[in-house]
Each structure stands twice: as structure tokens, then as C-alpha cells.
Design brief:
The chain has 18 helices and 9 strands. α9 crosses α12, α11 packs across α12 and α15 packs antiparallel against α17 (about 400-410). It is α+β, with helices and mostly antiparallel strands.
Length: about 425
Amino acid sequence: MGGVAGHLSHVHEDLDLTFGEIKSLLSDVASAKIEAVEKLDGQNIFFKFFVDPESGELRTARNAGDVKKGGMTADEFVGMFKGHPAEAPFLNGFEAINRALSRVSPESLKKIFTGEDGNQRFVNAEIIYANHPNIINYSSDNIVMHNLQEFDDSGKAVDIQLKGGDFGQLVDKVTSAAAKDDSDSWGFYGPQIVNLRDITETGAHAKLVEKLDARGMSDSDTLADYVEKRLRDTVLEPLNLPADKVEDLVTRIVGIGQKKPLSELPAIGPIKKGLSKEMQKEVSKIGSKVKALKLVSILLRPIEDAISDFAIEVLRGMESFLVDDTDAEVKRMKDELNSSIAALQAVEGEDAEKIGDMLDKQLSKLGDIEDHVNSSVEGVIFEYPPGSKKLYKLTGSFAMVNQIIGRARRLPSKDAQNENLIKSYVQAILMG
């Protein structure tokens, strides 16, 4: 997800979690004591139904600006996605949602989409369009409603309904109406609870705990503490910076990892002030927002890998409710993955090294393809602690598969690759 939905965090991305909390929440997952819903590989959309005394209109949002102005009109939405690679799913999905909401009374819609103090509400939903798949090939066209989010006048999310309440009413009304209309090929669903297996006897959680304990942190230490320790020991100590600069960099980089506003963190300009040009370059390499996020991700890699291995076992054999033949789909994904790997390995020219590094990284994280690509489900989403409205995801092998296949799909044709290779050879000859 992204845009209005924001980034749905992997467990390892929440730096405020302690090692003890990670062990506990994933123990609940391993013992199937936590409720989880299927994460879907579709096109995300936010929608509301705007009702005034004279008319009603479906509105959509892709970012906070859209929310603040009350959503995009139909014409604005169509204009945005005209000629877009995902034009077909978005426009067909829009029409399906519009038809579905037309089956619900305006009075009900006005109540559902109007929150406290007149705040507006949007449904966070997924468009699944069978003729335009991402990585997973689903068997039919569907709209899956995830939750109902409420926003204040500034476009900031202030509440979320995951089930029941007005959101539950909308799901019930739309799904029941859709079921009665045989002429509409689109299906409508609310969040789909997955059947987690009790995998405590497999040793997957015990292996996870062993890997986490090997990082040398206590259960009361947070991931932020871990990032700080690795940052100091492996990155900052060799730079031999003044102590005050080190402290400011630690505060800035860890704070960026915690998603704190930049205005609350030490600015990079004053940190660089007074340093040599060489040291200033080193600080810039790690201190900008983009570079800091990348660095935090690298420092967290051992934690990410440990949780990813655990997630692979959680998802093993899990079947998507929108895939008719899981075995066939898993085989198809493995086949495309293997052909994508071969295509990326065959790349020559200026992009070869960069692509090779990406491929090595993803294959290292993925491990045994035959064993680890084992589900037609992208991942699972769960609330922790229960009742907190704080959501996390586990995606197992999907993230690596998505990176590899996605990059292979963006490769130019073989003819174009050969042409580029010839050009690079000629350029090298001319330059001596």
C-alpha cells in the first residue's frame, strides 16, 4: 500500500518494538492465537460516496491532497489514469464500485461516510482485475474492502474501523446486493480472515528466537537501540567524527528510521559545519533522508531475514480465497521466477552489475526457491496489540519474488538489449 493508506509496516520496520515484543507477537502468530487477514496483490484505491441534498457521487483519493479537497471527481479520476499502465483495473474497478454503491440507499451512504464532527470517511480497498495481474494471478475480478478510515479537515487520518460499526454495515450491504445481481461479474468482499496453522512444533519460532538472541540485545531493548548500536559500532566509529557530531547523526538517522518529522531532528547542515570536505561527503552519504532510510534498512537486515524465514513457514501452503487452483498458481510463479532469474543473469552492458547485485541480494534472502515459494497468498495482516488499530504485515517470500519478477518485466527486448550493448562497445572503442 502507499499514498493515502501510507506504508503498512513489516514487523522489523517498527523501531519502537522491543525484542521481547517481537518474540511475543510472533509467538501468537506461530500458535495461531492472533486473527489475521489476507494481504492482496492488487491496485489500492480509497473511495467515498459524496452525498448532498440533490445528488450523490463516487469520489476517490490517491494522496492526502485528494482527501483534503473531498476526493477526486469521476472526471478527475479518469483523467489521472488515462494512458496509465494500470488504466484498465483502475477504471473498470471504479465503475464496479460505482455500480455497487448505487444499490445502497443515499441515507445509509451519508451515515457511513460521515464521521464524528462531520469528518469525511474513505474506504481503503483493493481492486483485483484478473486480466491485469501483478505477481499473483487471481481467478476473477473483485473489490476487497480493507477498512474505513476517517480524516480531519487537514487530510490527516484520525480513526480507522477494521470491522463492525459503519464499516461492517457497508460491507454487508454491498456484498449482499452484489450477490443478488447475477449480471455483474465483479465480486465484493470485506477483509478475509485466513486460517493460520499452529506451527509451534515445527521449530520455526524457536529458530526465530535463536536468531534474535544472537544479535546480543535484551528483550527490553528496542529495534531503535539495535540500529543505534550497529550504527555507532560499524558506521560512525571508523569515521572518527567529533563526539557532538556523532550524537547528532545518531539522533537524526535513528529518528528518520522511526519516521519522526525532520523538523524534530538535527539538521544535516549544522552537522556538516566545521568538518573537512571529505568528512562532509561522508556525512552526506549517510545523513540525507533517503540515504538514512537505506542505511537503517541495511543495519536491520539480520532482523529482517530472521522474520522473513519465519514468515515463509507461516504462509506455507496457505491458499488465497481468490485463487481457484493454488498448486497451479504456485507452479506458474516458480516458472516465471526461474525464467526471470535467467533473463536477469543474461543482461549485459552498463546495467549488468547493478542488476546482478540486486539479484544476488534477493536470492540470498529468498533461499531455496522450490521450498520457499509455497503459497498463493501475498501475506497476512494482523493487529497488534489486539484493539490497538496498529497493523503489521508478514509477506514471506513474496517481497523477493516481486523484486525479481518485477525487474525482469522491465527489461528491454532482446533486440533493444543487443542494440544498447553494441552502442556501449562502440563508445568504449571511440574513447580509447
